[in-house]
Specification:
The structure holds two protein chains of two kinds.
Chain A: H1 4-15, H2 36-50, H3 56-61, H4 65-74
Chain B: H1 13-28, H2 38-43, H3 47-58, H4 62-68, E1 74-81, H5 89-98, E2 102-107, H6 114-117, H7 122-125, E3 130-134, H8 150-174, E4 180-184, H9 190-193, H10 199-218, E5 226-229, H11 232-235, H12 244-250, H13 256-273, E6 280-283, H14 294-297, H15 308-324, E7 329-334, H16 338-346, E8 360-363, H17 368-379, E9 386-390, H18 393-402, E10 407-410, H19 418-424, H20 435-456, H21 460-467, E11 469-475, H22 481-490, H23 503-511, E12 515-524, E13 527-540, E14 543-551, H24 560-574, E15 580-583, H25 593-599, E16 603-604, E17 609-612, E18 624-628, E19 638-639
Parallel strand pairs in B: 1-2, 1-3, 3-4, 4-5, 6-7, 6-9, 7-8, 9-10, 11-18, 14-15
Antiparallel strand pairs in B: 11-12, 12-13, 13-14, 15-17, 16-17, 18-19
The chains are: A mainly alpha, B alpha/beta.
């Protein structure tokens, strides 16, 4: 997964929502289309895409998609 | 940018195009409007792709879909449990849509399914047709603290059983009539069982756990409103039940894969409760039922035993035979010479299936879609109640396109996988199998003999006279209630209202003061048709009101339906009723019935009602020997001449 933009595109496709690239830095609580279920789906999606086990606690605790992407890439 | 989309998900090209169309509709905001397109698209999706499709569908407002398509069948489902269950909704929405049902969900947030035992809860305000009480893999373990022994778990399981029994009792009282509560068995997780280091104690825990599961399963009586999904066979296929991380950080104790598998089983259960059952399994021959190619190897050259591969076909035939023993009609649709097919079906006594096991054989070189349409017409069933299994993708596409509504099972080149592919869709699941089911294939064969006799007799009236038709109408007895409920679920063409009843509802109706619940049996010289019809009604000041009349398609056209109605009209007049009123509610299949009622002298009397003033009564057809009694004791029956 090359960038947070790719992550957003995959999220839109898999979750059936319409986030924009600019949403990468928005606090998840302020994203109208985002809910806690999406966070769980995102963990599964990232682990599948990156083919490795991720630090779920760090990802669930991150506040934006960019922070989530960074936590996943750093692990 | 998303060049790696779906890489490695195992989703095939057909699924991708189906998903693509759904996504395009969702983006354009036309998914609700184009909802009838959804079902055929879902037919092609594998389970992974169905979850993705479900995420799109679950975002739709059911009210919006209903507004665009008022005739769509809706099922109201309440979902409750201890943990986060939101991931159940997408696969449940998609699986139900695949069965033609629109999900109207309510997901409880109460925790510990306390809302089930609270008669005033929002769950009951949802008026659920079905309530799913999801027991997750961590059930009871939150009550266990160290140091613990198997005995402590046994106590916790017993407390749980009591809670569930109480919940079931409240549900039976508080949920709408005919509603079903669904529990499930709970897998024993290794991370708990292996906290016991003594192997003897660990084995004891395993025994206690399975005993608790068995007790839960013994509670099941789906026809009476309590079902239990046995998840062990499902999880044994290789599904991880929990994700400890999501459990720890997000209270999601059931893994998405567990919930998706649960959704698939629950949707099948709901579809079977709704009467979505299929009646006939149509099978290809070469590569499906036997090894070899009939046209090349000849009738004696095809095999289902003698080699490992051939034995795999034999195992598939035994699976099919087991389905047939429970009432599934078997038919063959093959592109081969008819004579060769007949020879091959009779030439192999070592095959589990022989010519006698099939109620219809269509062999020839035309389209298989036409072959299936003809089989359905010959059997008097709807083409949409057919399940077709074939190992050739082309033939499957032909049938998908040419037989709308038929279920198509994709078999592949490996016969060892045929049995699980055949059973994957649960197309033949029923709330309960009755004696009538086991006898069904024989009755359809008798029907075939009757049809040939009819074809040989030029004069239809003479044919009917020669049939020796007998019909018996009498109040339903308790053991017949399950069959009556099943008739309400299976009959479409001759079902005045389309109402589907559970066994419990049939018994309740029969016990109500002034109510009429009649079972209709038929027989003729070709055989006993068994219990083939039902009449539900009640007597009131304005006369006899018939709430529903059902008749199996299998017996239509022999004068039985006219005899039953004429007999009832005579009996009503003799009993001093001023009129008989019939309720008709249009469904997709029963549009012909008002014309039929008019032919018997009924006249429209307000919305969906037809009334017979009992002045000029139709005669019971002379060729039918009708025995009709409305007395539950059965002592004062009357024959056609006196009713």
């Amino acid at each position: 997964m090359l960038s947070v933009d790719v992550l957003i595109a995959r999220v839109n496709e898999e979750f059936g929502i319409g986030l924009q690239p600019a949403d990468a830095d928005v606090d998840l609580a302020d994203l109208a289309e985002w809910d806690s279920v999406h966070l769980l789906r995102l963990v599964a999606l990232l682990e599948h895409e990156l083919d490795r086990v991720l630090p779920v606690h760090d990802i669930i605790g991150a506040r934006s998609l960019r922070a989530i992407w960074a936590a996943a890439m750093e692990s | 940018m998303a060049v790696d989309t779906f890489a490695g998900t195992g989703t095939d090209a057909g699924a991708l195009s189906g998903l693509g169309e759904l996504r395009a509709c969702a983006r354009a905001g036309t998914l609700a409007e184009r909802y009838p397109r959804v079902r055929p698209l879902l037919e092609r999706l594998d389970d992974d792709a169905l979850v993705l499709a479900g995420r799109l569908l679950a975002r739709l407002s059911p009210a919006e879909v209903r507004a665009a398509h008022p005739g769509i069948e809706t099922v109201r489902v309440a979902i409750t449990g201890r943990c986060t269950l939101a991931e159940l909704l997408p696969p449940l929405t998609a699986h139900l849509a695949r069965h033609g049902l629109l999900l109207e969900p309510f997901v409880s947030g109460a925790g510990h399914y306390r809302d089930l035992t609270d008669p005033g809860s929002v769950l009951y305000a949802h008026r659920p047709d079905v309530t799913l009480c999801v027991l997750d893999p961590v059930t009871v373990w939150d009550q266990i603290t160290p140091p613990w022994q198997p005995y402590d778990v046994a106590l916790a399981l017993e407390r749980e059983r009591q809670r569930l029994t109480e919940a079931a009792a409240t549900h039976a009282r508080r949920a709408p009539d005919g509603s079903t509560l669904v529990f499930n068995t709970v897998p024993l997780l290794r991370r708990f069982a292996h906290q016991l280091t003594g192997l003897d104690r660990r084995a004891e825990l395993g025994g206690i756990w399975r005993e608790a599961g068995a007790q839960l399963l013994y509670l099941a009586d789906p026809a009476a409103g309590l079902a239990v999904l046995d998840l062990e066979p499902v999880l044994a296929s290789g599904i991880r039940a929990d994700d400890p991380r999501l459990g720890a950080y997000a209270q999601a104790h059931a893994s998405p894969a567990f919930l998706a598998a649960y959704a698939r089983e629950a949707a099948r259960l709901i579809a079977s409760l709704r009467g979505g059952v299929r009646k006939c399994l149509v099978l290809d021959l070469d590569g499906t039922l036997w090894d070899g190619t009939l046209a090349e190897d000849g009738p004696t050259g095809v095999s289902a035993s003698g080699s490992a591969r051939a034995e795999a076909f034999g195992a598939f035939q035994r699976t099919v035979k087991q389905l047939a023993s429970q009432g599934v009609l078997l038919a063959v649709c093959s592109k081969n010479d008819p004579g060769e097919v007949e020879a091959a079906l009779t030439a192999h006594p070592e095959f589990p299936l022989g010519a006698d096991d099939f109620v219809a054989v269509s062999a020839g070189w035309g389209s298989k879609a036409e072959g299936i349409q003809k089989i359905a017409a010959d059997l008097g069933i709807s083409p949409s109640s057919v399940v077709f299994a074939d190992d050739t993708p082309f033939e499957r596409e032909v049938v998908r396109a040419g037989v709308p509504g038929a279920a198509v099972i994709p078999l592949d080149a490996d016969p060892a996988l045929h049995p699980e592919r055949l059973l994957a869709g649960g197309w033949f699941d029923l709330p309960s199998v009755t004696e009538e089911d086991a006898a069904r294939p024989a009755r359809y064969r008798e029907r075939g003999e009757r049809e040939s006799s009819r074809a040989r007799t030029a004069d239809y009236a003479a044919f009917l006279r020669g049939l020796g038709v007998r019909a018996e109408v009498r109040p339903v007895r308790e053991p017949e209630a399950a069959r009556l409920a099943q008739l309400s679920q299976r009959t479409n063409r001759f079902n005045l209202t389309g109402a589907r009843l559970t066994t419990g509802q049939v018994l309740k109706h029969a016990a109500a003061p002034g109510a009429l619940a009649l079972a209709v049996r038929a027989a003729d010289r070709f055989g006993d048709d068994g219990l083939i019809g039902a009449v539900f009604g009640r007597a009131g000041g304005d006369g006899l009101r018939l709430d529903n009349v059902l008749m199996s398609c299998r017996v239509l056209g022999r004068g039985i339906e006219e005899a039953v109605l004429a007999g009832l009209l005579h009996a009503a007049r003799d009993a001093g009723h001023p009129a008989v009123t019939v309720h008709w509610r249009p469904t997709r299949y029963n549009a012909a019935l008002p014309g039929w009622l008019a032919g018997l002298g009924f006249a429209a009397a307000g919305r969906d009602r037809y009334r017979h003033p009992l002045h000029d009564l139709p005669e019971v057809p002379a060729h039918v020997d009708l025995r009709l009694t409305l007395d539950p004791e059965g002592g004062t029956g009357c024959s056609a001449s006196t009713c």
